[in-house]
Amino acid sequence: MAKTIQAIRGMNDCSPTESPLWQWVETQVRDVLSSYGYSEVRMPIVESTPLFARAIGEVTDVVSKEMYTFWDNDEQLTLRPEGTAGCVRAAIEHGWIYNNEQRLWYMGPMFRHERPQKGRYRQFHQAGVEVFGIANPEIDAELIILTARLWKKLGIDQHVSLQLNSIGSLEARANYRSALVAFLEKHQALMSEEEKERLIKNPLRILDTKNQALQKVLDNAPKLLDYLDEESREHFAQLCDLLDSVGINYEINPKLVRGLDYYNKTVFEWVTTALGAQGTVCGGGRYDGLVEQLGGHAAPGVGFAMGLERLVLLVQEINASIPLKNAVDIYLVYHGEGTALRAFQLAEKIRSALPQLGTMLHCSGGNFKKQFRRADKSGATLALVIGESEMLNHQVVVKHLQGGEQQTLDIEQVIDYIQSQF
């Protein structure tokens, strides 16, 4: 017997019983984004490796440790670890943002080579939003308000909270970095080797360390908000006023910096404790220099991404009233000479007249008892039965599988009857 081949660790299948919940969550995301006037874009899952090195930063964990990278002839390619860089690349390449505003969204798989854990896998899925050409804080506020509306639609709004910060301009962060490094150098005895490496390459990332002893020390560290330039300070104040005006609750977290190098000014995360340890459900912020950094004409940008695996888990944990639609509404059973032809004709007629319903034809033979077992298992509401006598009399037996009367109808009456039941 041949050896069974299994899925790669951290790259998971989605079963037929799981996919309806995924479809429902994805539909809510699409509906909210459409209601705000955002347009979908689709980018390739493979990009040139230098795109991510330039956009995300070579010293970030994503680029230095987690990317799936390979050579294709003489070109180095990478499976996309996030969506922003590819979206910016596409916008520059196709001229979408030259002297123009764009409000875009995307959804699809991303890839990172890291230790799989609950809600975090090597192939994972994100929905993301990128807005180009708008520099003022109103658009930052809109993105946050948009996500708050989505949490309500998903029934999880009481189980997520917003953390907010401003990391200012590049110059402000450089000044802060010097002060932070001077402070942290006195506490290297508490640091792991990885944290000591970050102290040299990317010290702001130490602010979100999981090292509890170091976190306690960081309570007394210099605060980034104290080093903000005046423009960033005013931008952040206006953002907070806008959120206050529509009743969005938030916590200002001075340690929030996000993990990628391209951010400036606003950064935010929606977090939850409903899945155990605190986890980020959605995160984003402003990246005003990224378009120019990747070769385009300077254009401000802001966006966010949400991990769909973690979002699905959270909805599953919290929301018990999800209106998931069964794939099959009507199941056609037939038995006897010539009945298959009549059943096929009727099934296609129903699909043409009532395309919103799922109509399944049995197809695999067997007696009526076997076919009704399959019909029950399908979860259908109605079974339509065609035997030899029904075929000769141009009739159909309608059976309510969830309980109810069984009746015989002329075949011309079937469509109207089905319509009355759904």
Walkthrough of the structure:
The protein has 422 residues and is an alpha+beta fold. Helices cover 38% and strands 22% of the residues. The protein has 15 helices and 16 strands. It has helices at residues 19-35, 49-56, 61-66, 84-93, 137-154, 170-184, 193-201, 212-218, 230-245, 290-293, 308-318, 339-353, 368-378, 388-392, 414-421, and strands at 39-40, 46-48, 68-72, 75-79, 102-111, 123-132, 161-166, 251-252, 264-272, 279-286, 301-307, 330-334, 359-361, 382-386, 395-400, 406-410. The chain has an 8-stranded mixed beta sheet with strand order 1-5-6-11-10-9-7-8, with helices on both faces. A hairpin with a 6-residue loop joins strand 9 (264-272) and strand 10 (279-286). Helix 1 (19-35) packs antiparallel against helix 5 (137-154), helix 1 packs across helix 11 (308-318) and helix 5 runs parallel beside helix 9.
List keywords for this structure.
single chain, 15 helices, alpha+beta, elongated, eight-stranded mixed β-sheet, 422 residues
